[in-house]
Amino acid sequence: ARANPLLHSILVNTGKYEDVESINPNLNRDSKLTRKNFDRIFESDYLLLSSITRTIPQTRELAELYHENNSKGKVVVGGHHATFLPNETLEWADVVVRREGDKTLLELLEVLEKEKFPRGVKGISYRDGEEIFHEEDRELLTSEELSNLPIPNFSDEHKIGVVNTSRGCPHSCDFCSVAQFFEGTYRRRTNDSILDELKSSPNKTIFFGDDNFGVNKKETKKLLERIISEGLNSRQYYYQLDINSAFTFPRENSVDENFIELLKRAGGFSVFLGLESLNKATLKLYGKKATVERNKLAVNAFRDAGLWVHGMTIIGSDADTVKSLDETSEWVRKNLDSVQYFALVPLPGTPITKNMERQKRIISKDYNLYDGFHVLISRPNNFSSYDLQMKIIQMHKD
CA 124, 178, 355, 54 torsion: positive or negative? Predict the structure, then answer.
């Protein structure tokens, strides 16, 4: 389970919910819940859980412990996994909040204070005995509404601040659930609201948590210019970017030197690039609107500007071979500062997962293994699953 600082602020700002506590076990010494944490959880009227697929087993265990110790309490779960698998989640949760919870959570709690079941609340699924109900979807927040959300309530113990300037991504890569979660939309906050949040943060290191920080280049450039002019560039910033943001035009290989220079001058330390592959056929299989040439050009452009380039790849498509992976490993060692070689994860809600389910190729539904380091797809064309697993381990060692 992980705390959601934004929902914390939304609840507190209503003035109705004063006894709210965000608990993030990663901030504890051994990254586990303490006895004090458990006592606080068990005495709470509502346990609100935000979870990714990888942490669903622990989230379920915590929810079951909560129910054992508080028979009247309600467990509410949100996030990508719960959104795409609400029925499965409702085996142990009372309510699932699908997609964005900023409006839904407030309305849900107001109804639960008066009624036993939250009928009519948009954007939720819930159990009534053995029966499961799915209320209609809630409209996603507009850019204006995103800009007017309160500043997230991060604990002072967070060493790295996280700021989200937008939600969604204009691309729809087959392995990614972002487009499906946000229904293919991309919405960006105003620069004024982003800067207000940056000024309020005590952190010297800021990670922009956007799935794609550089989608709206025009406004992002203005933001970077203001970070520089308003003296906020003494920090270190980390950006997660699509490689296309390195170029002036979508389908041309002219490097946008102005944008890259602004990233660096604004305090940029590192860019996280979703390269996914250096194999043309693999990029096509993944639905990536990128080319191997542009991947390499973008990496070189960011490194030439003095930015640390962290590459993220997905290894083991049906087009990958021992030769193509050896070539990838060799190029990475010469051209990237750091890398992650992820195995393909069959995340709920993605086109690739649906395809793999039809082909009966998903090896395990043990979500503890859904961390990107375990091979979960059977019968890759040019490897056994075991050999692919060993190859990924060797590539990391190299």
Answer: negative
